[in-house]
What we know:
The complex is a heterodimer.
Chain A: H1 3-14, E1 20-24, H2 48-61, E2 65-69, H3 79-89, E3 93-98, H4 105-114, E4 118-122, H5 128-135, H6 140-153, E5 158-163, H7 172-182, E6 185-189, H8 209-215, H9 219-222, H10 225-229, H11 237-240, E7 251-254, E8 259-261, E9 271-272, H12 278-284, H13 286-293, H14 315-321, H15 329-339, H16 344-361
Helix pairs in contact in A: 2-3, 8-15
Chain B: E1 5-8, E2 13-17, E3 20-24, E4 31-34, H1 36-44, E5 46-50, H2 51-63, H3 67-83, E6 87-90
Antiparallel strand pairs in B: 1-5, 1-6, 2-3, 3-4
Amino acid sequence: xxxxxxxMTEKALARNIPLxxxxxxxxxxxxxxxxxxxxxxxxxxMTTAEIKHLLxxxxxxxxxxxxxxxxEIFLRKDFFExxxxxxxxxxxxxxxxxxxxxxxxxxxxxxxxxxxxxxxISMYSHRPEVHDAITLVPGSLRRSLDAARFLKSQGLRxxxxxxxxxxxxxxxxxxxxxxxxxxxxxxxxxxITPMMDGDRSVLSLGVDQESLRQVFRDRALxxxxxxxxxxxxxxxxxxxxxxPCSAGHTACYVSPYGEVFPCVQFPLPTGNVRNERFLDIxxxxxxxxxxxxxxxxxxTTCTSCSHVGSCTRCPGLAFMEGNIRGPSSQDCEKSFxxxxxxxxxxxxKKRGPANLIQIHIAPANSATQPSGAIA
Amino acid sequence: MSSLYVARNPRVAxxxxxxxxxxxxxxxSTLFTLNKTATILWQAADGATPLEHIVQQKICRxxxxxxxxxxxxxxxxARDLASHGILQISEDPIVPGDSK
Lengths: 375, 100
């Protein structure tokens, strides 16, 4: 984060201003990515008028960075009307997330005219047989790459967003090389998000420890490997008083149905803009306040973990695991892959099943013993 | 009378954060914050009001400065903001949507 943006974020935090919002315009999509967590049926998306009204409310609330995402944003016939309202009427700094397969020269020129900060394009491989097998749309890699070229030729900032999973774990360097060739940026994220309905089977697509370990030792990705993989110093009182992340503090997420959540990856409903003003939900929702109240020192398990000061723990993933103050196992795996030191959560899990087995095999007359006792 | 006109560049992103104006350049995504004078100038830059009127009506009233000196400073500031793509300046009124 730049120094100035960091200063503005601190100011927003002190004044309880939602500086950054992701608004999903639709969950409908023209790809069917194997790792996607969304239900693509339309259950009553906000109308154009509702979205424009919401944008007005968000601008008045101080929202500056607006990420428009989905689903596939270009499936909304009113997409450019919404984008024009956001940019030209309310001066948001707009970022777009898209698979880009509907972007041709005309759309790219129109985006340039309206002006956006960046366009993030999902890019899973440099090989069609891998990328298209993930999106389940033949020809999708070619179309996304064509779009990237159209956008780039308009002078726009393009970012390839790659999700690391079993299917494409050998291809991330190829995506990066492709990005360099096209003069665009690229990101790599090993996080797989559980389905919105709580189904966690999609997590099986995540890469194993060995692959994660290799990725974290790729100098081109992490820079100074020794520094990146070092074990952090024990967290002091200041570190333990830190915020877990920006979710609910300076950022939040709004679904196509008007529901407000702390983050796109934190499905704790806090209100609906169809029933309440956006700012009232942000300021007064009891759930938003609860999220806001949590500090690192309040976390169960994690507080005693050697990684607490350097972990990328996602509160939303922890919530989806069942405890808003608990660990996020995917982030435990990352800390372990990075340093070779298991997290407190991983150690506890190893102990857990052993204890259960001991209870299971204990004779009936031992039922009064403490659960952790060895029979 | 100065014939300089100023207009907000429609390609930038802007938001007032507790009275301080945040501006992100549409040219290279550089983030700026404007001081109080620049914020007044930004908010009044409608492309139709001459800079001299803005200085007389907004800046001199706020800061109690001598009009001639304030106008010279405002012109310097406007040209500086224009060099960063934040404002558009012209010797003629600027038509909305005429993005440069």
